[in-house]
Amino acid sequence: MWGVWTSFFDDKMTMTDVYTMFFRTSMNVPRIMGYLLAYLYQSVIIYGKKITKQDIENASEKYYEDNIDAFFRSSTYCLLSIEEKRNIAQLKKVRDAIVDQAKEIKRQIDRKVVPKNSSI
Questions:
Q1: Phi and psi torsions of 43, nearest 5°
Q2: Strands (E) located in the chain
């Protein structure tokens, strides 16, 4: 099965790399994975190139911008009730907290620092 995939993915990527990248970028949600594959087709495959890790990350970023962030920038925001606006504001705070935490974890991984309260 991997033989067919090698015609689409960079030779430097193993099957495990591909699975890991798609799991991390799609949270293993089939709909998100479909979007990622569609973006990869439009930006890489139709040009006869092979998909790299950077391409998968770019597709993930495009999905976020087109679908997740677009919700928060929606023009219908002004038509929502106070309660709905409050819920969206709370969702934005949760989103920002998750992004900040992910960035901190990535910095720690890049520095190879394990927190003292970690069970690793």
A1: -105, -15
A2: none
